[in-house]
Design brief:
Length: 411
């Protein structure tokens, strides 16, 4: 296999504290050697081994590719009118999901695939190398199944979200039986996790618990949309059921924060007890004009944080992780290093991709993601800046200069 030397790196973020300093394991004057699809060597540029090819980073910062652990990118249609109304003062209550459900049901598989591929290409140009995406805009057995199949053609992880909303006109109890029975049976071979929208107007705590229990019985991991529109049981349910993550988290009590933090008490880089990641979605909080999730409070308590885009057509129509990281720093109170770690390694932990090997939806065995360390998948991005600090120092600027995914140049 050919090898590639990326050297003359001004600041390298490895996310491995055994390789560098501080949060992110940073190395100055660094170099990376890529062999095939994996990182082969990391260290000071002066010590770098020879390689077949060379890329001169010219003093710029290099960091892992973004890991976007929460998106809804299998959809059709547009909700511009809803967004405009919200900006004019109307509140968000999740009802707009029905508009997307209707459009998605009417779209062909080709149209859904083309839209998904367009969004992933946009994300690649912004430094995202790993994408999770969900079903949830079909809400029939047939449409949820085809959404899962479409998602699996391009995404790195597929999550079943039949428990997104009770469809208009459906009986809630009958629909819950469908989600936890025939619908789950149909999609299970095509997904790695199951999600539930535990929220007023969607699924209450009892119904959400049923979804999580049904997923566990199928041997699937779980996630929870929780505490977005008001305080509810989502965060506690996620911890109690050992969910990979609970996402949104605008409304948390001290008990919720403590539960999320203490879920990691015995965890040590993948060994021992595995807790629940607290995933914050800054772009969504801004778009819905809801309170920002208390990311700083969660971090200070000891919770493992992830930052994701929540790319969807209604409440967060962006997959710019650069924007999400800048917002987490400027408005949520995280340090730049905390935010970068949450948007890379944190997302990988939320997807179970941070340690050992994992299998993607196409059946390919993949090495770990979220870090730049020997053995990790070679997912790297170069910033048009000497430091990751510029992500918040120069918000909104197109700072992504180059991207590698699995060792291949992606941008």
């Amino acid at each position: 296999m050919n090898t590639l030397l990326i050297d003359n790196i001004g600041e390298l973020t490895t996310n491995d504290e055994t390789l560098g300093e501080g949060i992110g394991g940073r190395i100055a004057d660094a170099a990376v050697v890529v062999e095939g699809d994996r990182v082969a060597w990391v260290g000071r540029a002066a010590d770098a081994p020879a390689a077949d090819d060379r890329f001169d980073a010219d003093g710029r910062a290099v960091l892992p590719g973004w890991v976007d652990s929460h998106t809804h990118m299998v959809f059709a249609g547009d909700r511009t009118a809803e967004f405009g109304a919200r900006m004019a003062g109307e509140s968000y209550a999740a009802g707009g999901i029905t508009v997307t459900v209707n459009a998605t049901r009417e779209a062909s598989d080709v149209q859904l695939s083309a839209n998904l591929e367009r969004l992933i290409a946009e994300g690649r140009r912004g430094g995202t190398t790993t994408f999770e995406t969900k079903t949830g805009y079909g809400l029939t057995v047939e449409d949820e199944l085809r959404s899962a199949r479409v998602a699996g053609l391009a995404a790195d992880a597929v999550t079943f979200l039949g428990a997104h909303l009770v469809p208009s006109g459906a009986d809630p109890a009958e629909y819950l039986d469908l989600v936890t029975g025939p619908m789950l049976d149909a999609v299970a071979p095509f997904v790695s996790a199951v999600d539930v929208f535990c929220e007023t107007g969607a699924f209450d705590g009892e119904a959400s618990a049923r979804v999580l229990e049904a997923a566990a019985a199928k041997g699937l991991a779980t996630r929870v949309h929780g505490n977005q529109l008001g305080h509810g049981p989502g965060a506690q349910l996620a911890v109690e059921h050992g969910s990979l993550s609970v996402d949104h988290l605008a409304f948390l009590t001290d008990e919720d924060v403590e539960a999320l933090a203490s879920s990691w008490t015995d965890w040590n880089d993948g060994a021992g007890k595995r807790g629940t990641v607290a995933t914050v979605l800054p772009a969504c909080d801004l778009s819905t004009r809801m309170p920002l999730a208390p990311a700083k409070r969660l971090a200070e308590a000891g919770a493992i944080l992830a930052i994701a885009s929540n790319c969807n057509p209604g409440t967060s129509y962006t997959n710019s992780m650069n924007f999400c990281v800048a917002t987490a720093v400027l408005q949520m109170g995280l340090t730049v290093q905390q935010a970068v770690r949450a948007a890379t390694l944190g997302g990988a932990i939320a997807l179970g991709m941070h340690a050992d090997e994992w299998v993607d939806p196409r059946g390919a065995v993949q090495p770990r993601v979220g870090s730049i360390a020997p053995g990790a998948r070679a997912d790297l991005q170069v910033l048009e800046a000497p430091s990751v600090t510029h992500l918040a120092y120069r918000p909104g600027m197109p700072l992504t200069a180059a991207v590698w995914r699995a060792g291949g140049r992606a941008f």
